[in-house]
Amino acid sequence: MFGSKKEVIGIDIGASAVKLVQLKEAKGQFQLLAMDREPLPPEAVVDNSIMDSGAVVDAIRSLVERNRIKVQDVAISVSGHSVIIRKISMAQMTEEELEQSIQWEAEQYIPFEMTDVFLDYYILGTDPADPAQMEVMLVAAKKDFVDEYVSVIRESGLNPVVVDIDFFAVENIYCSLYGEESLNVVALIDMGASGIQVNILKDGVSFFTREIQLGGNNYNEELQKKFGINSQDAETVKLGGTLAGIDPQLALDAMRVVSSSLVQEVRRSIDFFSATSADEQVQKVYITGGVALTTNLLEELQQGLELPVEILDPFSRMQVSEKSFDLDFVKSVAPFFSVAAGLATRKVGDKL
Ligand SMILES: Nc1ncnc2c1ncn2[C@@H]1O[C@H](COP(=O)(O)OP(=O)(O)OP(=O)(O)O)[C@@H](O)[C@H]1O
Ligand SMILES: [Mg+2]
Known about the structure:
Blueprint: E1 9-13, E2 17-26, E3 29-39, E4 45-46, E5 49-50, H1 53-66, E6 73-78, E7 83-91, H2 95-107, E8 117-127, E9 130-142, H3 143-155, E10 159-165, H4 166-178, E11 185-191, E12 196-202, E13 205-212, H5 216-227, H6 231-238, H7 248-276, E14 284-288, H8 297-305, E15 309-311, H9 327-333, H10 338-344
Parallel strand pairs: 1-6, 6-10, 11-14, 14-15
Antiparallel strand pairs: 1-2, 2-3, 4-5, 7-9, 8-9, 11-12, 12-13
Helix pairs in contact: 1-3, 4-10, 5-6, 5-7, 7-8
């Protein structure tokens, strides 16, 4: 077929909100057509599982209507316990040989029946520990888990055409924006309400992924405990709002406790990567997701990791029309949209 492939909208179903992004690619640059998010009730998505599909469908429908989206093809992504990403080492072989043997090989590493998962993989290169071996990244997602996500998209009247993994969606947007000038080794860290996802790229390819069960919700819990307030009030305080009887300085102190554990966990992941890869050191860290906006967190990460840290803004190098968008607003909420923007760069017919 000639011409470019059909565009899709990116929909990121997160623990706290559904995010939608629509892009258009022209002359090698992306133009932002739509970006919006709709909050979800607290119990709608728990541990990455869709508990209240009606609430998620309602959120998706509101986004589609509000933004007058006509495109029906959607790229979504999944993450969590039902997604396994594992680096394995196996004898050097050609791509064809690997294709033949990957199912059997994967069986030893994937804790699910092979008939129950979608499997994907890519070759990373020669194993630094043994030149006769090569490293391969296995990616498996449980079919019934993926189906939960696919179903809510269908119930919303849309057509799911690409299913990605959250890690790779962020990687996609990073590579399409910064790919050419990227440093050798960077860590992309998506910090959401329910957890943190660390993805370390070497020359634009994911070499290490880790999920940390610590996220935006932990700040709320800490503030609730400290001040005896409910989750909603904790959210207000967390975002810098004022609440009678709460000393802002004490609130910041409570938040620092969570930030410290978060920094420590991220540091542990980066140290683990360094210890297990040949002379490779992370050169720069990009943070994204709503939690990246937490007061002082960037500075604390910078200090704790002893590395440069920057906020990844998925729209920073896109064409964003002043006529359609309030540019300051787009900038202020951009980190929420990295997954959805990465998904929106995909095309109909892209591999799952
Ligand atoms: N200015 C801010 N300061 C601190 N935290 C913030 C700020 N803005 C948003 N957050 C937090 O960011 C989180 C939402 O971010 P995001 O939309 O990236 O998460 P999510 O995708 O819904 O969750 P997950 O990725 O875990 O499924 C919430 O916990 C919210 O309280
Ligand atoms: Mg998220």
